[in-house]
Amino acid sequence: MRNVYDELKDLIDYIQDVYTEVTEEWMHGPSVKINLKKSQVADIDADGAIYRSIMEYIQLLNERSAGISLQLSLVCSCHVTARVKAYNSIEYKIQNYKTKRPEFGKVPINKCVNDLFGVRIFLDTPLTFNDIHTFVEGTYQGKYRCIDSSKFDYKAIHIYFKENNQSFPWELQIWNKCDSDMNFTSHKTYKQEYTTWEKESKEGGIIDG
Questions:
Q1: 41-59 tens-digit pLDDT
Q2: Is 155 helix (H, G, I), strand (E, B) or coil?
């Protein structure tokens, strides 16, 4: 009989398959490739090669996302959603790393731009971080970075998919269904913050040079 771990494994395996496909398409495409580990957030300018590369990758994701999302309901019985990160949300996050954190952008890009494509699964059977971490480590032997991203009212575990230092990471958010209301409230607060920032920006939300 299938259990929640079977559902989770099927989803992780599916995400890995499509992530590999999209990454191969991206790596063989004409866009400039950036070393996301060596390059820093502080290096991102609105008219620079790094920013253009991010936007071109977003365009590729938008082209592929509908097909990926359609398959999610066939992969497992849990409720699963997916999204491509919105342009204004990307810009807000980058700007936040450049101006509001102690490092002032002196961090690798792949630590900031790590969720351009995200999948979210709502578990009917609640699991703790230790439950999921033990399962992921035991099943995939260190292939994925699995972290407890819970903060204040937001309760979730995040798993990151990454091929190499030139491939943009994808994110899987694992939510217990019982935490959904508080998590959505937390996300709504964050969205209000970057919407306010966008309205106040003289450049309409474009990253400062």
A1: 999 998 899 999 999 999 9
A2: coil
